[in-house]
Amino acid sequence: xxxxxxxxxxxxxxxxxxxxxxxxxxxxxxxxxxxxxxxxxxxxxxxxxxxxxxxxxxxxxxxxxxxxxxxxxxxxxxxxxxxxxxxxxxxxxxxxxxxxxxxxxxxxxxxxxxxxxxxxxxxxxxxxxxxxxxxxxxxxxxxxxxxxxxxxxxxxxxxxxxxxxxxxxxxxxxxxxxxxxxxxxxxxxxxxxxxxxxxxxxxxxxxxxxxxxxxxxxxxxxxxxxxxxxxxxxxxxxxxxxxxxxxxxxxxxxxxxxxxxxxxxxxxxxxxxxxxxxxxxxxxxxxxxxxxxxxxxxxxxxxxxxxxxxxxxxxxxxxxxxxxxxxxxxxxxxxxxxxxxxxxxxxxxxxxxxxxxxxxxxxxxxxxxxxxxxxxxxxxxxxxxxxxxxxxxxxxxxxxxxxxxxxxxxxx
Length: 412
Known about the structure:
There is one protein chain. By secondary structure, the chain is mainly beta. The protein has helices spanning 8-24, 46-53, 57-65, 171-174; strands spanning 69-76, 82-93, 98-108, 118-126, 129-136, 145-153, 159-166, 181-182, 187-196, 200-209, 212-216, 221-237, 243-259, 268-287, 290-307, 315-332, 336-353, 359-376, 384-392, 401-411. It has a single domain (8-411), classed as Porin. It contains 4 helices and 20 strands. The longest helix has 17 residues, at 8-24. 24% of the residues are buried.
């Protein structure tokens, strides 16, 4: 795999700019449009489920280096919920240095979220500088977003990108349907960058948006939201075929929803949710047509839910999940492949009743087996569609089948 060399000064520029922005930004916030406050639904085995549904390290690497593509994956998290991840990036380079693109990055695993997209129009001011406008047009103008961005470098190589999006910019002016107002409307700022060396890749993504409030005196609605999100990636290609990588993700969310005249419990909630994830993994070939992807994963998820109209129903759920995962892949020519994965973990789950602070604990081992079959279109550099069936290893005698899912990825 060929990686283009980049001057180390570009990495230093990215680093010092990140430090500067962290100094002027006290907290990080992000609003995705979800005004609901959901109860906790995750089970002990769900982070093993999610890992089995995710794309491999090689697929993620191919996605990051590709200029265009779309991919989706998902699977059951229980009787009523589905893990869902959908990403899209399409861009066309036009004459006079202009470009047009559409991007989408959607993931659901602990609460319902609306599907958002963004359209960008860019102009290449020089070989390493692109300026542009961005937004999300809507039939209902009060929900439209407007913004701008600047990119230093090439997004398929090393780059630094600064992006601002003013969400629901004309909500108060264009709201002809009710008495609700946003004061203030969200303003999202994002810093994202990647540095590629001979054998190294370093990437980060940091998003902030000013706190938002939604008020409706007719319904006696008071909604507010804050969220922080950070991502970090380090990969090292320690020989021509094998890669070792470390990923870190973190978010913290606060939501408050109070509708005084509503009898619905979901309209009287305050929620704090936080999640921290680390993945250390290696991938590469074992023999001709045989590939291995194996690693360690740690998740900590905490969900603090205060039921404002019934304190005795308030609780805090916490999950600590430690897992080892590995998958073996066999290519069958250019069109099909088999893949088998094993996921083993120790999970600690606890529930604290916030009324009397009583605590329930549920801990134990979890195990999952994944068997997948993939059909591909490698002759024209096309996509790969994978069908998966998963099986319980920790309780095989009583509940052997766990479910299935479909995964697809296409890069251009």
